[in-house]
Design goal:
Blueprint: E1 6-10, H1 11-14, H2 18-21, E2 30-32, E3 35-39, H3 45-58, H4 68-71, H5 73-82, H6 112-120, H7 131-140, H8 145-159, H9 171-176, H10 204-208
Antiparallel strand pairs: 1-3, 2-3
Length: 220
Amino acid sequence: MRRREFLELPAKSLGGLLLYTLAREPIRLQAQDGTVRVPLRFFTAAEARMVTAACERIFPADDSGPGSTEAGVVIYIDRQLAGPYGRDKYRYTKGPWVESIPEHGNQSKATPREIYRDGIRLLEDFAALPAAQQDAKLRAIEKTPFFQLLRRHTLEGMFSDPLHGGNAGMIGWQLIGYPGPRMSYREEIGKNPGEAWRRKPVSLADSLGHPVTGWEEEKD
């Protein structure tokens, strides 16, 4: 077992609420010198910094709202790769391994973990590069399975339910006006006729009234 590693993120950019929601492990978070130390399950600290920087170029913060760093996308990816999805527990992984149409899904032998390990080697020193060089480096690998997976995971981490590790503070849902998994809006009908209505989002745990465990927490 390797030594536990942490990713240090600027506390100021996260906001007070995110100190709890980012890693789903509030007891282990430590704010020191303006930073938050988030425990990692799959990535090394160096890998997490590269992935954070890459995700930020895919979904950057701008005048319209926060980006992948504020949403804790790297934590979402770290949790998924550490869990059953990362090791392909539920995918048929025997041959033949062939090129196929996207609708058939992943047909390769490599697991998501292996795709990331190989792909991260293409991002050496990525976090230290200027934005223009980062974009150029990503464009150079945009046809690779690694980039395609990274892009998909970035969007998932922005907009999935917070229980999976991303969308911290539901800021992704706030960005697009998604109210969360609600079964009915009956109690809202007729309250504000003629007015724009945008409800504050609630997570699945909020809706159910008790904590919910994601599949990435599944134990062997």
